[in-house]
Amino acid sequence: MQVKLMNANERIINELHECLNVFREIVGAYVTKLNDLGARILECISEGIGLEKAYFASDLSADNILTVNHYPSCPNPSLTLGLAKHTDPNLRTILQVVPLDVLGLELFTDGQWLSVNTAPDAFIVFVGNQLEVGSNGELKATLHRVRNATKVRTSVAFFINPSYECIVEPAKELIQA
Ligand SMILES: O=C(O)CCC(=O)C(=O)O
Ligand SMILES: [Fe+2]
């Protein structure tokens, strides 16, 4: 009988595979929930601006991306921004922030930057550029930025995008003659 002992490299590779499987399972379940949540919010938004419930479904929200932003602790946060001001180029963003007590996200509204508070189990939802176009400007893309903090901050952003093939244009129902 031949017994093959695993060397250190093989053991690490096996453990890595195991971690990746668990990671895939957890992230897969999270993304499925975010997809459902995103679809429900989009339905409410569509109805709210006078479009049919499913207007932004299918091609207009077919391509989704999950990203993680990590902001290391910054010794002098007043000297630099974590993320410069921008609007997201997609249809819509759903954001979750960890840890909850580290503030940093700011929205530009009524001529000033306002800090966004987070709450347990809460999601932050941004209107992206494509939703501003699709809604013919009824919804304005959210201008936002991130300030650094002396503590580490991480955010998870789920970007909902139209498919590459689809044409994004103002909804006919929202164009005044
Ligand atoms: O980290 C945040 O709170 C915001 C991240 C963000 O704006 C982005 O990923 O586009
Ligand atoms: Fe953003």
TrEMBL record:
Residues 61-162 form the Fe2OG dioxygenase domain. Keywords: Iron, Metal-binding. One of its GO terms (molecular function) is metal ion binding. Pfam families: 2OG-FeII_Oxy. It comes from the Eukaryota. PANTHER family: OXOGLUTARATE/IRON-DEPENDENT DIOXYGENASE. This is Fe2OG dioxygenase domain-containing protein. The lineage of its organism: Eukaryota, Viridiplantae, Streptophyta, Embryophyta, Tracheophyta.
